[in-house]
Amino acid sequence: MNLAHWLARSAQSNAKRPALFEGQSCVADYAAFDAYAHAVAGWLQAQGIVPGDRVAIFMKNTPEYLIVFYGIWYAGAAVVPINAKLHGREAGFILHDSGATIVFASADQAQSLGVDAGSGARVVVAPSDTYQAILAAPKSDSICARGPADLAWLFYTSGTTGKPKGVIITHGMALSMALCYDVDVDRVTPEDTALYAAPLSHGAGLYNLMHVRAAARHVCPASGGFEVPEVLDLAAHFGRVHMFAAPTMVKRLTDGARALGRSGEGLRTIVYAGGPMYNADIIDAVDHFGPIFVQIYGQGECPMGITALPRDVVSDRVHAEWRRRLGSVGRAQSAVEVQIGDASGAPLPTGSVGEIMVRGQTVMPGYWNNPQATAKTLKDGWLMTGDVGLMDENGFLTLQDRSKDMIITGGSNVYPREVEEVLLEHAGVVEASVVGRPHPDWGEEVVAFIVGDAPEDELDALCLDRIARFKRPKAYIWLEAFPKNNYGKVLKTDLRKLLKD
Question: Which residues, at least 6 apart from 323, have a Cβ–Cβ distance to it below 8 Å?
Fold first, then answer.
């Protein structure tokens, strides 16, 4: 089934329900949302777009984004979302690799493409007079049929270890992810509001599906991004707000709300993922906002769909193992199996540390035009995530680190996150990131980068009190800020290069 049918059904049953907002201003109800999407589909078909073609979106978070998104699906094509923060050359690579012949872009992004991309794709600026003419064009008269194995969304990885790879996300995968959200993460109702403060090109955008199905409201901040006062104002205005946020966003929201004397009125659910959430930060967030947080673990290759840690566990402070469970990413979602394996993919006993493996309805069939990467990542039906973790006897999965980030010193494994968790217990540490540095005798030694003003002797004492001596950082380096990518993840490759230089 083409998942765009969810929009058409909501338009049938809730035609006058407000659908799309820019800030507090309503741009379209569900009837108009559906009509605009049909107009985009009709225009695309008139340009020669046929089922299976790829159409890119290189836009900031705006209501037009969702209209174009569903127009592409109505036409039977696949969406190629490009993070609006990428450089024009990076976007150009994605356009060329995906074979997209049309790209809808915000004005700034279109200018970047015009100068740098050279992809040959036709650029349509939205909003613009051209875009308005598209909305007035003859509409498609139906939704193109798509099957569960047909390409819906071609997601490009961040490419921190090389050129980005295109992850094939099918209609069946997206259906599995969306239905698991209702079962394992949160239940969406028509009274809810999806607030898109994180890029629509990623997980926040995927989460539009269940909100469209429920005929809920969709709000794009007028700023186009994540500004704490604006998020708090919108939550208070609309109420029952759902938001996806990276852990760094949760920390900023907590610190900002406290500084402004705001309680977070109207925030109903914040789903966090996309990087390590340290216990100190989520405890602080729950203390301030209450039990509104849910954690999920996923990858582009299994979008938003590996595990979930529900709000009752995130907010629990009574269970004997609450700290350990809070430090986990929860249990397997309903449509997948999760196990821990060795380097060959053989399963390891419960409690062992190894590579996290996933298989099921939400796992990709492979990478776009990249059989070598596909063969390396998919083994006997299992997705080899590249993440290291362990699963306890109750099914809670705890991430250690990416396998490439593990430090081996004197033959012993050190997982940076474990050390970072301890360092963040110090009130003077704002951020911590741990990497390995080559050592002539031990192979590697542990080095901690710190944002903050904690004294080195106090950090040493804290580590010696919490973890084994060999895990204690042998050097501390203070920075004003960490290098991060467009999604807020710390670039450990840049930190290692800083050490090398």
Answer: 279
Residue 276 binned pLDDT confidence (cut-offs 50, 70, 90): confident
Band (405; pLDDT cuts 50, 70, 90): confident
Tell which residue, 86, 72, 65, has the closest CA to residue 40.
Answer: 72
- Which neighbouring-strand residues pair with 434? 448
Whether residue 418 is contained in a domain is answered as: yes
Smallest Cα–Cα separation from 386: which of 417, 356, 344? 356
DSSP string covering 90-146, please?
HHHHHHHHHT-SEEEE-HHHHHHHHHHT---PEEEESSSHHHHHHHTSPPPSSPPP-
Question: According to the model, what pLDDT value does residue 161 have?
Answer: 46
**What percent of the chain shows pLDDT beyond 70?**
96
User: How far apart are alpha carbons 304 and 425 in whole angstroms?
Assistant: 29
The string of pLDDT tens digits covering residues 381-390 is 999 998 989 9
Asked whether residue 464 is domain-assigned, the answer is yes
pTM for the whole structure: 0.85
| Domains contained in the chain, number | 1
**Dihedral of the alpha carbons of 198, 200, 203, 208, in degrees to the nearest 10:** 110
pLDDT of residue 60: 95
The answer to the question of residue 444 being in a domain is yes
What sign results for the dihedral spanned by CA atoms 156, 159, 160, 161?
positive
Rounded CA gap, 353 and 409, in Å?
17
Segment 366-383, tens digit of pLDDT: 999 999 999 999 999 999
Range of the domain at 471: 406-500
Supply the CATH number for residue 475's domain: 3.30.300.30
CB of 208 closer than 8 Å to CB of 218: yes
Closest CA to 413 of 401, 423, 421, 422: 401
- Tokens for 477, please give them: 């380096």
Question: Half-sphere exposure of 132 toward its Cβ, with a 13 Å CA cutoff?
Answer: 3
Query: What does 449-488 look like in DSSP terms, one character per residue?
Result: EEEE---HHHHHHHHHHHS-GGGS-SEEEE-SS--B-TTS
Tokens in use for 296?
A: 């999920």
- Longest pairwise C-alpha distance within the chain: 72
Residues 6+ apart with CB under 8 A from 27: 20, 21, 63
Per residue, what are the HEC states of 434-458?
A: EEEEEECCCEEEEEEEEEECCCHHH
Alpha-carbon span 363 to 382, nearest angstrom: 8
Contact assessment for residue 481 and residue 488, using Cβ atoms and an 8 Å cutoff: no
Mean pLDDT is lowest, of 72-81, 258-267, 397-406, 490-499, for 397-406
Tell me the mean pLDDT in the region 189-198: 97
- Quote the pLDDT of residue 86: 83
Residue 485 is assigned to a structural domain of this protein? yes
Secondary structure in 3-state letters for 418-429: HHHHHHCCCCCE
